[in-house]
Amino acid sequence: MAITEAAYQKCINPDCGAEFDCGQAMFKCPNCGELLDARYNWDKIAVPGKLSEFGKRWASRDKRLDLSGVWRFRELLNFCPDEHKVTIGEGQTILQQNDAVAEYVDMKPGRLFLQYEGLNPSGSFKDNGMSAAFSHAMMVGAKSCACASTGNTSASVALYAHSCGLKCTVFVGSGRIAFGKLSQAMDYGAQTIQIRGDFDDCMRQVQDVCTKLGLYLLNSLNPFRLEGQKTIMYRIIEQLGWELPDWIIVPGGNLGNSSAFGKAFGELKELGLIKRIPRMAIINATGADTLTDLVNNKNLVWNDSKVEQKIIDDYYADLTARNFSPHTCASAIEISRPVNLKKCLRAIDICDGIVRAVSDEEICDAKAIIGKWGLGCEPASAATIAGLKHLRTEGIVGADERVACVLTGHLLKDPNVTVNYHKDKLGEFSNPPIEAPNDLDAIIKLIR
Ligand code: F0G
């Protein structure tokens, strides 16, 4: 097993702080049960002196690692020797300036950008994380893997698993995931287990299954997944001509992305590659708003890594006592016990972050606007624009600040929500199909 000296794993609990080499597959600290980080000995890594130097790799896209939108930035996630690195062409995503959507949220032209992660091979941002986590899986010689999912993780895991020759089992909540995603998991050959329960139930089960059977876990508890997801931020900076946005807006579910983005900016600052850190807004759906409630109403904070565990324990005990199960049309973020909560609090601390929740109606209207003027996205992704609309009304984001919204998943992931919105005229921007007789004159009269 080849292990690089440049990287190690470290428990985020300050009272523990245990360190492990990267040759071990763990999804929690074996000493105290807290989350683990991938950490680097930067003095052992030849990190370029300027971010723009990564851009030179566009000239050598015939090399598979330079083609990958993840591994193009490999010095910034240097935990794995090149021979184990896995890529299927992830990260070829675009940052679209969108003035029409900007107008919807009352922003000035030229200031709003949409980062289309739906353009990844499996249609969501997950592929960034999977190329990194599967590289680690190959490095430690894993043969079988598993994940719990609201849909996109399972699709991405299934795709990478068969590309790497790993056996794969995915756990989804019965009736809780969008059809596009379920079809991918089955078509890519994963064993798909539908648990009678929600995502949080699946998440609990998969950890026990992985521990008992020694399967490699690919949820965002896996620290190496988050390393891959850091590159979404590098690509936004790259596409802004190596300049920083003022705001990053991201949907919040299991809180892997927000955690990864905060870590990315913290490291870039530490390395002297950026001078300031953009602010981050994390957007929940109101039917799954644990983070919003904990941060905005219960004053939960990172507090220099001394998070008040009792606030979280009490909150979850109350959810259990009420038999609470989250509900939102944005099924991707229908999560009430986000596993990366503490890392997300750290990201909020690093990025002077804020948290908001938006209703399903706001999400669906924002989704229709993104579809009408952009490349389309799934409901969870549209929470970003719905959230930005709140932040503009509140005056927290200025009309001429530069904002990048991460559109996490492709429009076709969840056809039902889209079809119902338009066909059943559920919102202001519904665009229903028009019934016409099979008659030329009648048809011509209908064309607008
Ligand atoms: N957007 C989409 C499209 C997602 O699929 C997810 C999460 C999120 C946002 C939330 O991201 O967890 O990093 O806060 N989907 C996971 C899954 C949970 O199983 O596919 P997060």
What are the key terms here?
448 residues, 14% strand, 13 strands, binds ligand F0G, six-stranded mixed beta sheet, 38% helix, 16 helices, alpha/beta, four-stranded parallel beta sheet, globular
Overview of the structural elements:
- By secondary structure, the protein is α/β, with parallel strands linked by helices.
- The strands form 3 sheets. A 6-stranded mixed sheet has the order 4-5-13-10-11-12, with helices on both faces. A 4-stranded parallel sheet has the order 8-7-6-9, sandwiched between helices.
- Helix 4 links the parallel strand 6 and strand 7.
- Helix 3 crosses helix 7 and helix 7 packs across helix 9.
- It is globular.
- The site of ligand F0G has 21 residues, from helix 4, helix 9 and helix 14.
Q: Helices and strands in order, then pairings?
A:
Layout lengths: L6 E5 L7 E3 L14 E5 L23 H4 L26 E4 L1 H6 L7 E5 L9 H14 L4 E6 L2 H13 L2 E7 L5 H9 L3 E5 L3 H15 L2 E2 L5 H7 L1 H9 L7 E5 L4 H15 L8 E7 L4 H8 L11 H13 L19 H10 L3 E5 L1 H14 L5 H15 L9 E5 L7 H9 L16 H7 L2
Parallel strand pairs: 5-13, 6-7, 6-9, 7-8, 10-11, 10-13, 11-12
Antiparallel strand pairs: 1-2, 1-3, 4-5
Helix pairs in contact: 3-4, 3-7, 4-5, 7-9, 9-12, 13-14
The chain binds ligand F0G.
